[in-house]
Amino acid sequence: MFASKIVSALGREFPIKTADSEVLKRVALQARVKGNPKRVSVLDGVFELDDSKVTFSVSVKDFSRPDVAFDVNLDQIDLDRYLPPSGKKKPAEKKKKSSPQAPEKGKTDYASLRKLVLDGKIRIGTLKAHGAKIQDLYLKISGKRGLFKLNPLTLKLYQGNVSSKGAFDVRKNTPKTNISVQAKGIQVNPLLKDLMDKDFLEGTAQATLNIALAGDEGEMIKRTLNGKGDFLFKDGAIKGIDLAGMVRNTAAAFGLAEKGKKKPRTDFSALHAPFTITKGLVDTKKTTMVSPLIRVLAKGKANLVKETMNFRIEPKFVATLKGQGTTEQLSGITVPILVSGSFSSPQFRPDLEALLKQKLKTGLPDSSELKNMLKEKDSKEGEAEPLEEKAKGLLKGLLGR
Fold first, then answer.
1. Total-model pTM
2. Are 233 and 204 spatial neighbours (Cβ–Cβ below 8 Å)?
């Protein structure tokens, strides 16, 4: 059956606009159905949509309190082909359409879910969504009396594996959700390129995440978000920023050093970020990065409700490059960086108090020399990209903005 052609033959415009005009041209369905007033079953079901094929079975009994069991197997699908066309709106059009106030969202009634009994399995061979490619997805869901469990959810993602389980509780009027995720062996760079069209981080990632939240709307979810997580990236690089050059001395930190022809990057052997979340407040006390040149400790907090942050990044040079092909002694002022402000407009500045303490300990440039560096920065404004802009660009990349 060619769905779009049938609609055209009836003299109508096909009502669904998709990113790929070649989809929704072939639809086919066959199945065996049997039942009685108390039970209905669909057996040996086969549904074909364009290049995708689904085999399925479904049974429903006790219609007053539906008891549903299903088993679905999808070979492959590219969901991006079925999304609406991506068209960039003009600023004026955006403003015009966003000016009316959105209607107030009504409270969701979960009474029907409390009656539902559910037992189902879903398998997907290959899935593409928002650019990201997933393989061998398996999902088992069960539930009754308003408590639904997702256990397990497993999939393969960019040469790595992800396993997860969770629960969705609507036994009371305010829903509660618990999720745990374990991931390992994921190649970060191709994932970020496909999902966000970003190229700022390389490495192999592993992660654990356990979170709990309440509510079904954004603000309440952020206010009630609690949990902890741990991210570890191995043998990678932060691209577009030379952290060692930035923190080695004040001039480099403010972007006064000459730009090299090679694209800046910071290689690392490990980037480790453990954190906790308490009522929407993300706290990391010991995010560390180990690279051939420097060690970095970052600590601070990010408020998901207010969308603000307050972090301190403390770099420290290793004594030498011994073991890296040279025994050069490293020196220079390491510049701690303070990060504050909002997610959309982060602010970066050197920790001058820490600089003065380093001066007293090391005997490096005196205060007059430091002032000259700052004056030089003002006089050369615009000649090189400052630290604030470099770091802001990196942070925006991490936040996906």
1. 0.77
2. yes
